[in-house]
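Comment thread on ticket #2218

A.B. wrote:
> Attaching the input chain for the structure job we discussed in standup.
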Amino acid sequence: MATITASVYTSHVPAIGAAMDLGKTQEDYWKPLFAGYEFSRRWMRDHKPDVVLLVYNDHATAFSLDMIPTFAIGTAAHEGYGARPVPVVKGHPELASHIAQSVIQQDFDLTIVNKMDVDHGLTVPLSLMCGEQDPATGSWPCPVIPFAVNVVQYPVPSGQRCFNLGQAIRKAIESYDEDLKVQIWGTGGMSHQLQGARAGLINREWDNRWLDQLINDPVACARIPHIEYVREAGSEGIELVMWLIARGAMSDIQEGRVVGPAPKLRHRFYHVPASNTAVGHAILENS
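C.D. wrote:
> Ran it. Output below, let me know if you need it in another format.
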């Protein structure tokens, strides 16, 4: 059967992608940030998965404010891409369709997208973890299943809902009848606000406390209400609920409780600022 071997958590700040695309990664401003991903790139080469299920939010590329699904899974063999000069994302239609079937039968409503254009929310994490790729001759190291979550227009899903969804996704993957190593990535966040009187808000203390809890007490982390994200992490800090999908998919979580050995923390990194945003990152391996 397929198994989830690890989960990856990272911000997907668009300016990070621009820095890579414009060759600015070694400039004084950007160098400390990219140094935080050097271990991650080595780890990715040594732990190459067969498939990545990448949880992110769309930024008016595949969906507009006219229609925003709460959860959407891309099932195409090839996914498009936004403005960044990166290779087209190759999907895994068979596994994606199986996940959709299984998760819907577990009472989660997914929107199935047979043609999805992806944007920096998905491609920046790939570049951070896999390195820069030539759009003409390069390719990502494995197929990627895009999983889009609405954290743009309210109402958005709760952290608990996302945590529970992660458990349903793990059950789906583990029931797939092929020997695949799958990683699940949760992206977005950390604290940031892009508009209004608090534009530029970054809350280091809260971010790191939240990351502690995500790693060590995910059940409590899933219970954090929306108002706390908005108050402490800014209006866009709500993107962190997507990390809870990846955490809920880890093998120590069963029926909403911690029942097994904790995953191994392989790497943790935090940096401010990147543009006007806090950047968080972690890698967990299943025991």
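A.B. wrote:
> Thanks. Noting for the ticket: The chain is about 35% helix and 25% strand.
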